[in-house]
Specification:
2 strands; Cytochrome Bc1 Complex, Chain D, domain 2; disordered N terminus; two-stranded antiparallel ribbon; homodimer; mainly alpha
């Protein structure tokens, strides 16, 4: 009995310690919008669509080409390659845990995963479909998809909204819980190395947590879906990094809204799985995480970190790599027998 | 007892009927070379490598890009797209059941799946790695692969032979049994429609079976591994198809051996899953299976088929679509934390 009470006291103090940290463990499920409930059939359809290169003009690019769910959830390139090898202008963000983001894309121009999913389909340097109607027409030629859309969406059948909803529903399963940090914050104090703990304390002291807080390390916990946490990048421009890494070439949200007030504002990205997602920044110009840490300290906080501080922070960031879910490969429904639905 | 004997007589006669067909059911496992035994660890490593775009120069192309195991085992394009969107010169054959082929590639220039796997890695219009050593160097930078190669291949560690062996071992699991034809030939006479059975008889009568026999419909049952069944294509050149579909532009095996005797000779391709693998022929010039049937009859046998014959044959060919195995997505071992191993 005494031992039990003693344990209770300990866990209470651990709980107290937890509350002081500006982050929390990743929930196993993200917010689910009311108009797009999760069903196993919809998630499976979404996984098929996500993996299906027929959603691109010439049948060479799928969502997974640039957001690889067998790997980092991105493509580990500075710029992604679309149809015909064309290069995009920003680095593909990881799909892992994107379901917790309140806005999508580096400039936050999509208010939901559903909105986001529609973008690359018709982007001429990504999947390059002529129109959303062309996507619907392509999918409607594939008998297996037609019957699956009917099963999932009823009489609506194949629609671009259905495509987006199914892909978003699948993406809401792409959560990576149980990182060393998550286990640490839940009470397993041995889950992170002493160096990682030092790094954790350093990012608090240095001031990274003015933007990187909350369960997804992007200060979005209190935002409604569609509402973004945008921060200016670069903030301090009088340093070598800004030139070296060409940080003034992309106006970020301003390039989208055409408002000067939005110039150089970007959605704050997550830190989760950041050790998997080199190269770094929206232009992928920084190849390693240690350099990314140095850059952020200088460009955002005007601070120069010691080599030890950088090493400690990197160790903490490595502790944010979660467990990727086990998934079955989807079987893509075949084209009509003896035909191909793509040109190429 | 009498019923039992009667059943025995019936099954005996079914057996006799089976023996008369020039094909047989697909075994569940293909031949396994003595120097590359299957192990679960090796097959899993092979599946990872097969799916990993880091095996290409810029990290955009994996084996699966052109031989998609979630779909037809090919890419349903005339020519595959490699690094930078460069196009190859021949249509990607399906990987399904390729483990039964005695030689690989349209021109049979690889004597085994192991040999085949090494080709695309350094082909400048496919995966475009600078050399096999560059492949080994890339993989050797990835800690998870290094330990897996050690576990699978012992002290040899990461070698190009190991890469090829692991991929080949995985490909030997890519078998599609239980097609309607397989069930039919095993005794379930309702597994194929009457039209498919008519088509089956038609391909025998018409003479397609001078080349398309055996368990994989490519007359390779009696060949040793490394020994190819090559046939001339086109055989009859005095017809519109040869011009229309540019069949004289690719000298096939002759382009590889540089011997005139080999000009226009190709490895006889399988019929299995052919309804999944449009477009057709080594140059992917024929978009539909019914046209492919007309073309083959004219160009190889100098015969013109009736519309009914074509429809029946197509129905039979559709009955050769097997069951694709269920597979778990592999988890690709990450790059060293905070780094990317590719340039791009």
């Amino acid at each position: 009995m005494r031992i039990w009470i003693f344990s209770l006291i300990i866990s209470q103090s651990l709980l107290a310690a937890k509350i002081e940290l500006p982050w929390s463990a990743l929930p196993k499920t993200p917010p689910i919008p009311k108009d797009n409930p999760q069903t196993p059939e919809k998630v499976y359809l979404g996984r098929q669509l996500y993996m299906d290169p027929r959603l691109s003009k010439d049948g060479t690019v799928s969502c997974n080409s640039c957001h690889n769910v067998m790997a980092s959830g991105g493509d580990n390139r500075a710029f992604s390659a679309g149809v015909g090898g064309k290069l995009g202008g920003r680095s593909a963000p990881t799909v892992w845990n994107s379901a917790f983001h309140t806005v999508q894309f580096w400039d936050g121009r999509a208010a939901s995963l559903e909105d986001q999913a529609k973008g690359p389909l018709t982007n001429p340097i990504e999947m390059a479909m002529d129109s959303h109607q062309a996507v619907v027409d392509r999918i409607s030629k594939i008998p297996g998809y037609v019957s699956q859309f009917k099963r999932v969406f009823g009489d609506k059948g194949v629609t671009i909204d259905g495509v987006a909803k199914a892909i978003a529903a699948y993406e809401r399963t792409l959560i990576t819980p149980n990182s060393p940090f998550d286990r640490y914050v839940k009470g397993d104090k041995k889950a992170m190395s002493p160096q990682a703990v030092r790094g954790m304390n350093t990012v608090i002291e240095v001031g990274c947590v003015s933007c990187h807080t909350g369960k997804n390390f992007n200060a979005a916990d209190d935002l409604a879906m569609g509402e973004g946490n945008y921060q200016k990048f670069p903030t301090f421009t009088d340093n070598e990094y800004v030139t070296k890494y060409k940080f003034l070439e992309d106006k970020g949200r301003g390039a989208h809204t055409k408002s000067e007030d939005d110039n150089y504002f970007f959605r704050v990205p997550t830190w989760r799985n950041i050790a998997l997602t080199a190269p770094y920044f929206s232009n992928g110009s920084v190849k390693t995480l240690d350099e990314a840490v140095r850059v952020m300290a200088k460009v955002q906080l005007n601070k120069e970190l010691s080599a030890n501080q950088v090493a400690d922070i990197v160790e903490f960031l490595k502790a944010l790599t979660g467990e990727r879910p086990k998934q079955q490969m989807p079987e893509l429904p075949p084209d009509p027998p003896g035909m191909t639905t793509i040109d190429g």
